[in-house]
Amino acid sequence: MAKFELKLPKMGESVAEATVTNWLKKVGDKIEMDEAVLEIATDKVDSEVPSEVAGTLVEILFNTDDVVQVGQTIAIIETEGGAVAATPEVKAEAPVAVTEVAKAVEVAKETVAPADFSASEKFFSPLVKNIAKEEGISLAELESIAGSGKDGRVNKEDLLNYIKNRGSQPVAQPVANAPKAEAPAVISQPVAQAVPVSVNGGDEIVEMDRMRKLISGYMVASVQTSAHVQSFIEVDVTNIVKWRDKVKAAFEKREGEKLTFTPIFMEAVAKALKDFPGMNISVDGEFIIKRKNINLGMAAALPNGNLIVPVIKNADQLNLVGMAKAVNDLGNRAKAGKLKPDDTQGGTYTVTNVGTFGSVFGTPIINQPQVGILALGAIRKVPAVIETPEGDFIGIRQKMFLSHSYDHRVVDGALGGSFVKRVADYLEAFDVNRDF
pTM for the complete prediction? Predict the structure, then answer.
């Protein structure tokens, strides 16, 4: 008999840890190759960990709700054979320390004893503890950081963001018997006090699930980070509606895919982003990151009703058929709960279809660290003025609103308005004689 070490696999470029949410197998169970052994959750998506071998599960090394680092052994599987089998050791990438912060705290590290984080009642992952120790962060300081992870846990990104801001402040040296100095106001943002909620006997109290807590944290953080501004424009999509009605049956027969409006709109957005690369950027503190690739996020529904944003990579390189296949694939896997962590990484701009729920337009919240998000309103038949050489007359047209939210820190009204106008121009100039 041989023992195989099942390790937490690498799940995406920026994913360093995951939380065990459910063991699908118990000690003593037989496992087939590629059969799911446990379910895990990252900050972005839930997924399963399959076994790379067939055998019997003999040891479980982590419990439900434990946080596991990429490359750690999570279970032992006994297989047929005489040698000990193990997956190659995968080491989680060490976080890149901010140079300025490292220099600023170097003296403090030499004079201050390492903090004993085991004394805290809060949970901190080994990765977070190691970063905190390396950067000379005290236990009290670590406990004061607002976490965006499960149950308010502080994750790597929370800590690195804190360190980045902390680096601009002078590092205080410990002084014996000195009174506690009040923390400078610039270190932490004022926390709004929650309004007390009264509960009567007929009310039901239900705790948010893990995904809803994450979404809640992301939305609040985005509003606090970006200066949201909106531009709205009405678009005549009559030609697109007629063309889709004419070709959708043939499209499905030839390609085996349903043709919805979404890939048509995504194609126009990708073209507009090429025309206005200033919308395809991210903000990192006082720096602007110009994204080379155009990776479109598309808000999709999960089985539990929550929303997630899978990403169409290099969307500008896809024709309409390729875009339709990508949209349908990600949408179907989102509904089935089969998205992989990497499917939600790397987005540079996001599109959300609020018209699916009958909304005429909306004011969506930016998906950080992007600087823009476009909401597609419902397509409606409306009376409209039609201009012709013979004069103007009233006719029935298919129209919709595009709602563009953008970050006014780096995107001014001229760029934000010009971009959404260009998307509208592409849609209204849609070639009804084109092939799919």
Answer: 0.66
